[in-house]
């Protein structure tokens, strides 16, 4: 028995437990890093597709739906901040216009989900078929689906403590949203 009544076997177990805890913490940090990377890449692909179907309308709109209030969520959300840091924007924050530039949003990734969800009437009415309209609506919801229920019923962008997110659940949801996006691409490729 050593000092404080702890024998060599107990010290070995504690050291082994400490190593195990360190491995768990490292694994959790890697999972969050992977989550941020995959979420950002998914968001950029969704953004590319949304721009393809919406930019003709948004570029000539006299009253754009983009507002500084919406951009502010990208500043206030720790998760969106982490995504934005990983995928640095081409422009800096402007208190008058947020991330909005003459060419649209300057964020590569890290936009609030509402930026994808909202589809104005002209965009919806311009879809040539009911199937295309449904595909655009589904596309608009993929970012929301990827981040939902990060902690309880809260979306990942609503959380202030990223240590409490369920990274495994979110990685599965990002994977599911990515798979849905891939299916949409296959359907479109079959129509061409």
Provide structural commentary.
The chain contains seven helices and two strands, in the order αααββαααα. Mean pLDDT is 83; it is low at 20-28. The longest helix has 51 residues, at 8-58. The chain has one domain (32-191). It is globular. By secondary structure, the protein is mostly helical. The protein has a two-stranded antiparallel sheet with strand order 1-2.
Topology:
Layout: H1 8-58, H2 68-76, H3 78-86, E1 100-101, E2 104-105, H4 114-117, H5 121-125, H6 130-147, H7 167-191
Antiparallel strand pairs: 1-2
Question: What is the gist of this entry?
Answer:
This protein is mostly helical and 192 residues long. Helices cover 63% and strands 2% of the residues.
Strand order, sheet with most strands: 1-2
Task: Report mean pLDDT, rounded to a whole number.
Answer: 83
Enumerate the spans where pLDDT stays under 50 for 5 or more consecutive residues: 20-28
**SS summary, helix count:** 7
Into which percent range does the helicity of residues fall? 55-70%
Structural class: mainly alpha
Q: Main β-sheet, in a few words?
A: 2 strands, antiparallel
Cα-based radius of gyration, to the nearest Å: 22 Å
